[in-house]
Amino acid sequence: xxxxxxxxxxxxxxxxxxxxxxxxxxxxxxxxxxxxxxxxxxxxxxxxxxxxxxxxxxxxxxxxxxxxxxxxxxxxxxxxxxxxxxxxxxxxxxxxxxxxxxxxxxxxxxxxxxxxxxxxxxxxxxxxxxxxxxxxxxxxxxxxxxxxxxxxxxxxxxxxxxxxxxxxxxxxxxxxxxxxxxxxxxxxxxxxxxxxxxxxxxxxxxxxxxxxxxxxxxxxxxxxxxxxxxxxxxxxxxxxxxxxxxxxxxxxxxxxxxxxxxxxxxxxxxxxxxxxxxxxxxxxxxxxxxxxxxxxxxxxxxxxxxxxxxxxxxxxxxxxxxxxxxxxxxxxxxxxxxxxxxxxxxxxxxxxxxxxxxxxxxxxxxxxxxxxxxxxxxxxxxxxxxxxxxxxxxxxxxx
Length: 399
Known about the structure:
Helix content is 49%, strand content 15%. It contains 13 helices and twelve strands.
């Protein structure tokens, strides 16, 4: 089958980007002809090419004909619908957070939406235009992400991987890890990046993150702790997994506050058997082979049902408008994060200022106490008597 996989950006490691490369690589292994079309490219596009995946950017580089399109955002969905009007189009919906992740609200634009969680499925169900919804789980390359060595009986190393863990929660994690004697390293936006997260996970005892990072850690046979800027659900266990997976491992499956006391208590409860239990869950539910096979079955069925519909709408213009909307939204997100970072810095400076003022007030009080003590000594009878006795000596020194 000739397939086009479309995405707006393929730049840095992120959930949708790693999903696309993982699925494209598996589709190639299954013998399909795969082209990835990415409008904005970076290191992740180069990584895809290194794995033998054809990545295009310009419209002139697109194949003349395809049998199906798998799209990951509103902008590319509109562009590829205009380019390939007669092929079935499947929209993979990863998130309910960002406008660009929303399937275009145009009848016939996509034949089906693949919802990557119950949370996303509910989001799509509430839209004005609701195509067929197919629920699939996040796929992981279980050969790449696999256990390397046994888990330690006592946790020594913690790695936090993600693009959103910052501010007070990052500080809390770092300080609690230090209190527990854990080496703590951060990877992601604003930190050191890694092209081999499986290596860092294999060297760790505890992996902290959200979304796909949690499933990758599970596949590596490591204890996975869901903790991020957006929320915190704690340890992934066979008991907590269903609710966390339904929530896309976003950190909002529970309403327990993510304070330092809870963080310290739960991280201290690490057990080495957590990792192998997680590996079993990943193998059972998150194989990329099963996921890719389900996508092919879906496209085959849609082709047989003649589900592709030519949309009578100014798709090119709509794509430009959608892209501008996303650029504005992403700029706003960046500004909000910068404001949060500056606010935390101001809070820290204000705390330091209060501390210095307290020290200054204490120093002034000590100085006043010392001055009062000196005055009391000078006013004492013994001091006056000592002064009278010393006068003849001083007069003798003068002569």
